[in-house]
Amino acid sequence: AGPGGADTQSNGGPTGAVPGPGGGRVALVTGANRGIGRVIAQRLAADGFRVAGTHRSGDVPAGVLGVRADVTDVEQVDAAYKAVEAELGPVEVLVANAGVTRDTLIMRMSEEDWDTVLETNLTGTFHVVKRAARGMVRARSGRIVLISSVVGQLGSAGQVNYATSKAGLVGMARSLARELGGRGITANVVAPGFIETDMTADLDEKTVAGYQAQIPLGRMGTSDDVAAAVTFLAGPGGAYVSGAVIPVDGGLGMGH
Ligand code: NDP
């Protein structure tokens, strides 16, 4: 893609010959090239949504329309939406999933560590939500799902930047739920716990064992565990759920 460009790349075309719970509605997932976002996009497509996914690098899965976008760049986000609208129609379900970590203790955390995480996780989400709201308000319907984290409520040593950004998403979703509810739009947060992806792949065995000891279910989660909650919120069962924070953490964050 050129600067601000949104090359579309259709990997086999949208699925959904037999409409599932998605009923052919258009869903956009950010960060759909790998990890949790990739599986969310696949699950939505399997449920009968017509799915587009943003990617900075790599490819989106088969059956998903790929649009290149860095969520920190408002022009790239706008171009991505234009490409999706032209190919599939207005976005009816937004899953804001793209996120990064730059973990280190507060005394060592640089301005750049802070800025990168806040600009991606919080400001990037603002960009995609704001652009989605336009079409949803016009349609008087929509579903917004923000992927936060258990650490937004629980806190996490070494993740002051990340936990702050993820806590911010709760305020964002609840404000959206109040502001846009009258237009038939829901806004919810899914708060995953410790999920096996690239993001957690570098953790040493001792840290992993330490986490697992605190998880009532005694195991790490999978991207499928997270996708199940997202597809619920996007589907018919989520119609009357708004402003909720749904934990998918094996019980790790209970009580928050
Ligand atoms: P990964 O690191 O596996 O994937 C992150 C995704 O976000 C990639 O597709 C990446 O694109 C994309 N991304 C990052 N920065 C940008 C950007 N500026 N613009 C566009 N896309 C971007 O992470 P996970 O799949 O594990 O995490 C997905 C979400 O779930 C994140 O928001 C994360 O915070 C959250 N989460 C994850 C948990 C876990 O244990 N794994 C726990 C709780 C929450 P690219 O490939 O180009 O880098």
UniProtKB/TrEMBL annotation:
Residues 13-25 have a biased composition (Gly residues). Keywords: Oxidoreductase. Residues 1-25 are annotated as: Disordered. Residues 25-198 form the Ketoreductase domain. It comes from the Bacteria. InterPro entries: KR_dom, NAD(P)-bd_dom_sf, Sc_DH/Rdtase_CS, SDR_fam. GO terms for molecular function: oxidoreductase activity, acting on the CH-OH group of donors, NAD or NADP as acceptor. Belongs to the short-chain dehydrogenases/reductases (SDR) family. This is 3-oxoacyl-[acyl-carrier-protein] reductase.
